[in-house]
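Example 3.2
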Amino acid sequence: MLDVTVIEDSAAAAVSLDPMRSRLLAELAGGPASAAMLAGRVGLPRQKVNYHLKALERHGLVELAGERRKGNVTERLMRATAASYVISPLALAAVQPDPARFRDQLSARWLLAVAARLVRDVGTLITGAAKARKGLATYALDGEVRFASAADRAAFVAELTSGVGALIAKYHDENAVGGRDHRIVVALHPTVKTPPAIEESSSPPAIEEAS
């Protein structure tokens, strides 16, 4: 099972977005199971679960893991092809974001378009590398930084732009025979705040008396 895979086909994307089929994918990410086993977990008749599994299988989202005899019946054990899925902008090819339409390094929406292109391109590269049974050379850097002020953030962006620009100028060789172009994406955005966990209390809540 892959850790993550990209869904590029619009029909496969539609299948994966169905709430029940998404639930089945989550269940099968935990390990192989039959339609009968899944029926008890999701609260559906086995026949309906089978119907959903066949739709997922047609689009390569689940696959046969094995078979087992149970009485006079042979059960098919299915498993998810990946632990998680990402839908590529190719699934909405006619309206996919295009960073080339405008360029604003301080625009959150332009950043979103760049990120969408990254998902699309890396997904396409993974698909091609898998078909060719070859490796894929990539690199990613992920981290967090807390700025004391907006001025510090602006200074960081300026130094980052200068530093990365210098590296590009140093290593880029327009005339390299047999060379291959690589895309560089550097992003900076505020971290998403997660809601604080609600602490459970063993004592009942206090009730204020009206005066």
